[in-house]
Amino acid sequence: MAEASSSTHRRRSQAQISKIALRSDVWNHFTRFTDGDGRAKARCKHCPQVLGAETKSGTSTLWAHWNRHEQREEIPGEESPQQTPPPLPPAGPEEAARGDLARMIALHGYNPSVVKDDYFRSFLCRLNPEYEVPSRLAIEEMCDAIFDETMKGLFSKLHDVPGKVSIAVGTVRTIRGNMLYTACHFIDDQWNLHKIIMDVYADVPFLNYHGPLLGVDEVCLDRDLSRDISIDKVMVRFKAREVLHNLFMMIWETKGNDINLEYELRNEIEDNPFKINPNRRQLFYTTYMDNVIHSIARLLVMDPEFKDDYIISDLENLHLTRQERHQLLSQLGLDYDLWAYDEKWYSEYCSMEVLRKKGSAITNTVFAELLCMLWGEIYRSIQRISAPDCPTSSNLCLIELFKLREVFKHQLAQASGENAIAYNEFNGCFGAEDHKDVADVLTEAMVAIDKAIQDSYPVWSIPLVLDPRYKLARTKFIFQTAFSTEAAADYISEVTRNITELYSDYVEDDDSTMNAVAVGSTDPLQEAWDEHRRAEAQTDLDRYLKDELVHDPAQGFDILSWWKVHGSVLYPRVAQMARDALAMPTCIRVVDDDDDAMCAALVAELRELSERVADEREYAQTGRACVLAGMSSHGQQRASSVQLAKGSSVYGCSSAFATPEMQRMEKLSVILPPSSFTQTLSKMP
Questions:
Q1: Which of 112, 123, 280, 540 has the most CB atoms in a 10 Å sphere around its CB?
Q2: Of the candidates 674, 685, 463, which has an alpha carbon nearest to the alpha carbon of residue 584?
Q3: Other Cβ atoms within 10 Å of 371 Cβ, number
Q4: Closest Cα to residue 207, out of 225, 221, 192, 220?
Q5: pTM of the full structure
């Protein structure tokens, strides 16, 4: 920090230097101002602390404060023993710039250590030599304040929800490990969908792994006893967020699709003492629809030998640059971030499409065209139910399954008929060596799709029927097209029963509210009127189902806008059902909405938590941590410039976290030349 300040001074004009020549260098780190009583004060540029700055007192207090900052910078991981208040709001151009920098780091999940990077500091200095880059500690405190303010705004919305809420529980695999998150979805009184990430937990090998030190919430999902404690911790948070008393449905996708864990959490929710929705006969439970569709795509995975012998070699021979890859995937309408799905099938699909675009001979087969077509349909289905610009997608889930069923059914007929030979020529499906042909693979996929429909239709048929383009009439037609008349009749009977019972629950909710107001009233006329009103209300659902379907030729139907403008007026009680059903979560992929800074802040906090845990884990690893950290020749050169004074750090990390293996490596790096040191690293177990 001192070097950065001195370089800043060298760039100032001689006139500026003459003006500050009589001032102490400590003022490079403080801003002088006068308070309301006329007393001189100094505000630290690296934290929110304000100190006295009377001339007669000298600058010893200011120097002592700055020296503590320098010590904290030298010892990574050391926390300040004092709790400092949140930073003051920006008061000038420099403070405003710091606020913007903090918001950029907080809302995008960047690592706050970027402010310590030499190149980042040099970049800012070239833009404005006068700008003082804040310390990492100051930025982290500002980010914490942003998160705290964000959380207040988010949970204030939860208290004003006009309907019910849906809970989503999922795990996100980061580069450093798994994170368990809980989210809440609801639609507000203006029919806007909100997705709130309530809490994030690091999934660790055992409880109290690093959490108490780093201030990170932890769960352990692998051990039975620890898992019970972890579930209790999640339940305590649910109750604190006040979402259980107003719960519509729960959706989950936990690590390894742990069915036992999911049912344990479900049972805890149903058994909680707060009486979830006493008029509801049952809560809805299911898994994410995008994961269901992913499971179908995984059945089409390539045989490893086919992929190694043809696909990989052809891709390597293209010698694509980064820009060429980005341009190709954009032209093909594919997501450039292959890690976003973290799915093998998607990587193989993108590879096949790129080779087709480049005219590779391996893709000029019926099998390759079939595989790309099926994967393409699956990819577009997932995109339709997970697109961040889609107002809601719970009404599309069941439709997407039926669409995929029709596609696979048609291709299965082709692969089993006269074109079977062409389909199996150059068969690259997994299991081809065991005489499993393309028709066998498609049959397995059809079975998986039918099972997915059978398992999920009781839940996803609710928002589908509440889509005015489908209702019961078109939903019935879809089932009749896919299944036999008898099977379709059974499905529709169950759908009709579910929607009718759900409607009755909402009627009872309203009646309970009215009865609570009219306790003790025995007026027979009032009772007769209430009975008449209930009879009229019962026709609300009937009118909705009997009215004509909404025609949408442009395929740009905004279902939330329709319910806001039309449905709420025509069918007010059915609109209450739609408000809750259309907020049901559909995909596990955590997408930060650029238009919702509060949602983005919590997604960023998830990323930041993973990085904070990662810092600690990296220190606790064996000597290979240095290799993983990128100890190239350039990295060794930069590491050699780090001052290891007072034995406070080993390769930039606190000696408290340095393992004996890392300490041995430090000695080797000092004794051996770079080439010998690299060879020694490569021989380590």
A1: 112
A2: 463
A3: 23
A4: 220
A5: 0.69
